Amino acid sequence: MASEHPAQGVAALMLAAGYSRRFGADKRRLVLADGRSLLAASLALPCSMLEEVWLVLRPDESITELGLPASIKLVQHPLTAQGMGHSLAAGAERLLAESDADCAAIFLADMPLIRRDSLETLLTYANADKIVLPSYQGKRGHPVLFGRDFWPQLAALSGDVGARPVLQQHPEAVRIVELNDPGVLQDIDTLADLIQL
Known about the structure:
With 197 residues, this protein is of the alpha/beta class.
């Protein structure tokens, strides 16, 4: 599934261990108009552009059960149910131990509309000592690229605040890239979001 010219040195880490409480059902399994699940649609871009794709799932799930490519590397941890910080920590811990990448692109499982050229642009800024944030009309979105230098701090996260503490501690390393792509902001949190999609 990888493209002919994958970006070297960047691994994708998709966070998909949430329980979709605001949505009211497991939105990852929602079938979109093209027949793919929301999770599969969100994974399509990183799988097509990056050689190494890691997926954080709940402890009781499997990649085959969700109908996903076997090439995806699975991350599971009992604490991921307690919030995004725990999911990020579990993923960063595995990356530190098993990946040679210089940078990790953090994707969310409910964001299928990010454009290919947006990811291509972000990848040009990827570096071990940088944090790259996409922005659309001044609002920060995803994927966020964290250089390897910051992975130990990601691995220490907990709770549900995500990576905000790491961003706040290293403002000098943050590069905000303004993109003409509303897809970097559009996630599916409610039925209204789905209808809009």
